Known about the structure:
Layout: H1 3-24, E1 37-44, E2 50-57, E3 63-68, E4 74-78, E5 80-85, E6 91-96, H2 100-108, E7 120-125, E8 132-134, E9 137-141, E10 149-154, H3 164-175, E11 189-195, E12 201-212, E13 218-223, E14 232-237, E15 242-248, E16 252-258, E17 265-270, E18 282-286, E19 294-297, E20 308-310, E21 317-318, E22 324-331, H4 359-370, E23 374-379, E24 384-387, E25 395-398, E26 406-411, E27 426-433, E28 439-447, E29 451-452, E30 458-463, E31 468-473, E32 479-481, E33 506-509, E34 516-519, E35 524-527, E36 536-537, H5 542-546, E37 548-553, E38 567-574, E39 580-586, E40 594-599, E41 602-603, E42 607-608, E43 615-620, E44 627-631, E45 638-640, E46 654-662, E47 668-676, E48 685-690, H6 714-719, E49 723-727, H7 736-754, E50 757-767, H8 769-777, E51 786-790, H9 796-799, H10 812-816
Parallel strand pairs: 48-49, 48-50, 50-51
Antiparallel strand pairs: 1-2, 2-3, 3-4, 5-6, 6-7, 7-8, 9-10, 10-11, 11-12, 12-13, 13-14, 14-15, 16-17, 17-18, 18-19, 20-22, 21-22, 22-23, 23-24, 25-26, 26-27, 27-28, 29-30, 30-31, 31-32, 33-34, 34-35, 35-36, 37-38, 38-39, 39-40, 41-43, 42-43, 43-44, 44-45, 46-47, 47-49
Helix pairs in contact: 7-8
Amino acid sequence: MNHRMTHLALLILFACATQLYAADKKPLTHDVYDQWKKISGEVISNDGTWVLYVREPQEGDAALVMHNLRTQAGDTVQRGTGPAISFDSRFAAFLIKPPFAEIKKAKKEKKKADEMPRDSLGIVELGSDSVARIPRVKSFTFPEKGAGWIAFHLEKETPGADTAEAKTKTDKASDAEGDEKDKKDESGTTLVVCRFSDGREFRFPGVTEYAFSKPGNVLGFAVAGDSANASGVYLFATSTATIDTISTGKGTYKRIAFDDDGKQLAFLADRDTSKAKQRYFSLCYWTPGLDSAIVLVDTAAAGFTKGWLVSEHATPDFSRNGTRLYFGTAPVPMPEDTTLLEDETAKLDIWNWQDEYLQPHQLKLLDQELKRSYLAVVHMDGRRFVQLGTPEVPTVTTGSEGDADLALGLSNIPYRKLVSWEDAPYHDVYVIDVGLGGRARVLEKVKGTPGLSPGARYVFWYDFRQKHWRTLSTASKAQAVITRNIKVPLYNELSDVPDDPGAYGVASWTRYDSTVLIYDRFDIWSADPTGKAPAVCVTAGRGRTTQTSFRYLRMDPEERFLLPNARLLLRTFDTVTKAAGLARMDLSGAQAPVQLFTDGIEFTTPIKAKQDSTYIFQQSSFTRSPDLYAADASFHSIRRLSDINPQQKDYLWGTVELMHWKTADGRMLDGLLYKPEQFDSTKKYPMIVYYYERTSDILHRYHAPQPSASTINPSYCVSNGYIVFIPDIRYKVGYPGQSALDCILPGVRKLIAAGFVDPARIGLQGQSWGGYQTAFIVTRTGMFRAAMAGAPVSNMTSAYGGIRWQTGMSRMFQYERDQSR
């Protein structure tokens, strides 16, 4: 047999084997959903050696996977979730959930909360084979930037448990009389602090909350009044394993906060022993050298607003340099009438047509408003109190992580009514003196939400009317248009709603507020905030030339600004092929971005090891389940770490491709065409048409088989022999239904003309906004054999004034400025 005949024989054998393999595959059914898993909670150790992630089913028991990137060794802990790794990369901790079957059984039996199965804590020295398991743990923490310790908080003991702590609580409960039995249980539980060097545990009963300082030199915790210890706040020094009493006395203590160095502590305390319903908290403070904590601010403080109190709903926060302490204040709420029984009290919703918000919107915001606080500050040099936020200017943003002398104030109060028919918010803008509390209104009725530069030197915002970015100097109050020389649009070029298109946004600022990085649709521009120098395209126009968008990925969560010579990692997206990738770029703009990789994939934002150049991220496509990968800094060496859905090979899947056609008025459109595995163009397939607005950018998205209330799953449909067509839709304002019709029907006709779609078996499906379009389309054509509209609006006239139940807002804005067009 010659070589040509041998080659032909091999091709025939391969084709036969492929057909037999495909014949062995099964179509997806509803019974397989729980076989499909996803990855969540991925973390990488600071030294880049260990990766932990959770393999999570749609329903059932998850599993924690530990993987050593150096040796490829690993281990799995059943039902592990929420992993964390110690700062020195030596230890890992995670919660271990009860078996799913036990939780389900307890729910069916309607067990009380205290009787439900509880989480355990798992602790492992990475690289060892044993996992320490501690039962009934509700939370745990490592020091953020310190090593050698872990703290974990235990659940309450099971009722009737034979422990000294449980007996003590039972004895106390038995002494309670009358309505004290119904009093809300505010008792704490045992906090355990463990030292890894020798395994020694330090146990503190009655703890209600706790926190490590960032460097882990100290742990603060609050103790409730019914504990064996006196109620108060305590410090545990990790260097000496000793306890220091910071504050004691019957009362409630909460919101423990340290400065960055762990040398200052703040907390809130209510020491009123009366049974008054309204509680008054004080802001308390401690630093080494003080015998005990002192009260910094209470209602008697100099300059404190009469009729206000320290808010228990805001956690104190030290400025970066520790010279200021920010916290929340609020007006004293109106007291409840306790002289009437509940069934004697009328339940009224009183509203006026001039209210800022509609009544159902007010009700949705009620809890938020009851807990609203207004920013205040104590200057530690002299311990001087200054109120910054007020009901008239409720939102205050500080600069330089609280160190700046000026702050930004925003007020939407005069324009709240407009949210019922306007999509974007409006604000008055104030510059606030952090030292004295004085403020000056510098801008009125700015559309959108202005921001403050990291160093607080500039207020910046997008001017919807001029379609450019503007700044205002917080010192001189001088304004500047900083993108005037940029000739390409800085607003959403694809917007087709009846409103001013929004901007693409800001990537970051550079040190000393020197420049600000601004996006257009494709590229990144560096703009001078004074407006004196012209803006420069730091991506060298590569984005628009190649129709590829570049977007900055911030790898350091603590990053406040960029250095002028920084090397940036960019996410890239080819708007033509829909392929995502990564690129590197020098901020200096000396050269265009260098592509690291690009593929027909989707991927999650990479996570970088803090002390190493290793990255981890999830990567997927329509045919490849999202798995976890590791890469070096060049992203040339990419390793797959997981294989969470190997069962996919046993099922018929399919393919997806981009489709192009012209609308009824001649415009080009993209769409997604999903075909069954082993597609045969000589056959005629049933087809489902599904849509929302523009969807073609998700060409490479993986669709795990899963149930849905009223959307279709492309993977399931193609596995069962359907073609799925998802067209993009471009809208003409005032004619949303007709626009959908004009975009969808030409695409369907093109597919029918191709010969592989059965024109007698085409279905139509849409959910929510897609449901409206379905409801419209079936009144205009008989092309479709069946149609399903999920949660549709079928009457826009009546829906216009309807109330959205999630927000309590009127739908007016949706019709005037947004999706309903």
